[in-house]
Amino acid sequence: MPELPEVEVVRRGLDTHVVGRTVVAVTVHDVRSLKRHLPGAADFVPRLVGRRVDAARRRGKYLWLVLDGHEALLCHLGMSGQMLISDADAPLPRHLRIVLDLDDGRQLRFVDQRIFGGMMLADVDEEQVPVTIGHIARDPLDPRFDRDLFAARLRRRRTGVKRALLDQTLISGVGNIYADESLWRVPLHYARATENLRAKEVDALLGHVVDVMGEALEQGGTSFDALYVNVNGQSGYFDRSLAAYGQEGEPCPRCGTPIRRDAFMNRSSFTCPRCQPRPRNGRF
DNA sequence: CCTGCCGCCTGCGCGC
DNA sequence: TGCGCGCAGGCGGCAG
Hints:
Number of helices: 6
Strand order of the largest sheet: 1-6-7-5
Distance between the termini: 22 Å
Strand content: 15-25%
Number of strands: 10
Shape: globular
Helix content: 10-25%
Largest sheet: 4 strands, antiparallel
Order of helices and strands: HEHEEEEEEEHHHHEE
Radius of gyration: 20 Å
Structural class: alpha+beta
């Protein structure tokens, strides 16, 4: 979180407000947001100043601005990152980490409470994808996402289905919210062994992943608090449509059984104990 | 190669 | 009142 739909909402905002602009100044307020830019701020700032933004792109939860020349400003929002477009004289928000001044007098502000996110400059390949994220799989909204390849790789895994869904090298963009929602829709328990999944179940799961993310995108993404916002600081509405995630004790919309919360993978998993019974031969 | 665990981060709400 | 703790959890690194 933010997951693919929330990141796509941000990408669209950048497409509208930042593409075509030139960076005229850069201020790094907190170097921890450049953790993955190994040469540090002394390299980051001068390399970014004067560059024109040619495109705003995304794969899974990664976001990047294609710069003139074979380079990109790669961004990850982590848990709490925001990209905000502001007038330069607007009050500075708490947790402001990096500011890009643009040639129209406005600013692109990277705000990140928990600093799990960050920015870095990266070379791009012939498809304009940063080489740094070459290990990240295509996401299910990518026209070149290969469903058969995903199904084959999934069933070669020896793990539980939710663990696999959250593995960004297998399928990208899915986080805890949309994993739980997709599994509820199939329905499948998170601990179902990937090697035992039937082809129909994999098909259904993938279909629900695409559907639930598409619906969330139409509603501007999911927001539980003020952290997940578009470039204008506005939240989406999809949290009102969640069937399982965060619904502990609430009735399952399908059968009425109270939704259950389990600790799993150092986070929470929400299931309907009746629709998604724990598999007898499943594994974690 | 594969799988799964750890540490990174901050703010908030809770119990004592 | 204030402190400590659990929780939110994506991802790179690394152990086995």
